[in-house]
Specification:
Helix content: under 10%
Radius of gyration: 22 Å
Distance between the termini: 48 Å
Shape: globular
CATH architecture of the largest domain: 5 Propeller
Length: about 475
């Protein structure tokens, strides 16, 4: 969600990739390499400084998907630029090594460290960095043997309000949604306990919360999943508890849908949801459906008048392309860039990394003449025109975020390369989120041992604890 509750944005849901390889110590490095090499490489390095400068200045103003190349399911987005200067993404629990997880998002290898609430931050929705774990001392545990799924973030009354689900795969009568608060968008969050569940409101699969505040100040929680579909209930103005006497709305969407996101535009209420199977890798049937209503509590219908509660509901804003991408959905709330263009984030499986994990994709949202949304033209894209924030577009070529390196980045380069035969002068740097952060430096080098000079690329990996390792130095041939 992206509720500034002074704004609105959302998301939620659980689960993860079919088990792939066990994430043993030997496999962790392999998973890192796969993530690092995910994007296509530049065919040649610049021949001189002038050519390098030309590359950086004249590069296409585009982005490449995924914008986070490791497991990042069920993303929720907070536009916190007015306070901290950052966008933040929060996702379902994952692993510190970015390696294989089960459908319930638990690690395949039980010895692998779990990140309870992964938090990432960005200035532009394109280049992301890991910010930390929102529950560093352990996730809420008021549902036995549960996992933390589908967070939803809002800013209300000076607090960062996090709604989340405690999910048990197949435990449709056990699951519930809860709420936690923090003074910082990066946590740690203090758990305040359950808001809705089967026990409190007799709705099975009580997961995937989404908080929405209407223009009149009334606040609603949307939640629900397969079997019961999506429901809503009015909350107290602080978004922390159900309003006294409030009753669930009744089912608003098809029984095979979940991952609600409520968006208001032009006086109309748009209920976004994801239908189908979320977590089957290449076989996932997840897709985004949208219904519209004059009321936040429905009824929601499609452009042809079909009720959104129908199992074979037709209006689809985003679906798989049947070749490279599968299972796109459970998207964040919508943000608008400086040019008035709408954007959102969603998770998706990708053939290019072996369908391993639900990766974070960026999608452009367009509205047709009748006011119906389409995401990325209806299917995920490998690349596209980037959002415009801060008066200029984020400029990238084949890599995310090529730019002049900062002092901290130069210090990292020096730390792992000084003392050898090569003297390196950094010209530019690109970063990519894996389970930690990769730095790709384009440098001019002088080799004192062989009396040669030229250009090279240096790849450095920084793990979640801040340790840095030199991965490779590749000279221009």
């Amino acid at each position: 969600m992206i509720q500034d509750i002074d704004k609105a944005e959302s998301l939620a849901i659980p689960r993860e990739t079919a088990a792939r390889e066990a994430c043993s110590a030997e496999k962790i490095a392999e998973n890192f390499r796969k993530s690092r090499n995910f994007h296509p490489e530049m065919s040649k390095f610049a021949k001189n400084d002038m050519m390098t400068t030309t590359l950086l200045i004249s590069c296409l103003m585009t982005f490449s998907n995924p914008v986070i190349g490791i497991n990042c399911p069920d993303p929720t987005l907070l536009d916190d630029r007015g306070r901290s200067g950052w966008f933040y993404v929060y996702s379902t629990q994952s692993t510190s090594c970015g390696c294989a997880v089960n459908k319930d998002s638990s690690p395949v290898d039980e010895n692998v460290e779990v990140v309870n609430l992964p938090i990432y931050r960005s200035r532009d929705l394109v280049e992301w960095e890991f910010a930390g774990d929102g529950f560093p001392d352990g996730r809420p545990s008021w549902v036995k043997d549960s996992k933390l799924w589908a967070p939803d973030i809002s800013y209300i009354g000076g607090k960062y309000v996090l709604h989340y689900a405690l999910g048990v795969w197949g435990g449709i009568f056990k699951e519930g949604c809860g709420v936690a608060v923090s003074d910082s968008p990066e946590g740690p969050f203090e758990d305040l306990g359950m808001t809705v569940s089967w026990k409190s409101h007799h709705i099975i699969n009580s997961i995937d919360p989404d908080l929405f505040r209407d223009d009149d100040g009334r606040v609603y929680l949307y939640w629900g999943s397969l079997g019961e579909g999506i429901h809503a209930i009015e909350m107290n103005p602080d978004g922390l508890s159900v309003k006294e006497g409030a009753k669930p709305s009744g089912r608003l969407s098809a029984r095979n849908s979940e991952a609600a996101y409520m968006h208001k535009r032009g006086g109309k209420y748009y209920l976004f949801a994801s239908a189908g199977t979320c977590c089957e890798g290449q076989k996932s049937t997840y897709h985004v459906i949208v219904g519209r209503s004059d009321s936040p509590l429905g009824p929601f219908k499609g452009p042809d008048g079909q009720p959104m509660k129908r199992m074979k509901y037709r209006y689809t804003a985003l679906k798989a392309d049947g070749v490279t991408f599968a299972g796109p959905g459970h998207h964040s709330g919508i943000v608008t860039d400086d040019n008035g263009q709408d954007w959102l984030l969603y998770h998706c499986y990708d053939e290019r990394n072996g369908w391993n994990g639900r990766l974070l994709f960026l999608g452009r949202v367009d509205w047709d003449e009748d006011g119906w949304p389409v995401i990325s033209g209806g299917e995920p894209v490998a690349e596209g025109e980037a959002p415009c924030f801060g008066g200029k577009r984020h400029m990238t070529g084949a890599y995310t975020g090529q730019r002049e390196p900062g002092e901290e980045e130069i210090a990292i380069l020096r730390k792992v390369t000084d003392g050898g035969d090569l003297t390196l002068t950094p010209l530019s740097v690109s970063t990519q989120v894996v389970a930690g952060l990769n730095y790709k430096f384009w440098c001019r080098y002088e080799d004192s041992a062989h009396g040669t000079s030229g250009h090279c690329r240096v790849v450095i990996y920084k793990d979640l604890q801040g340790n840095v390792t030199l991965t490779s130095i590749e000279k221009e041939e």
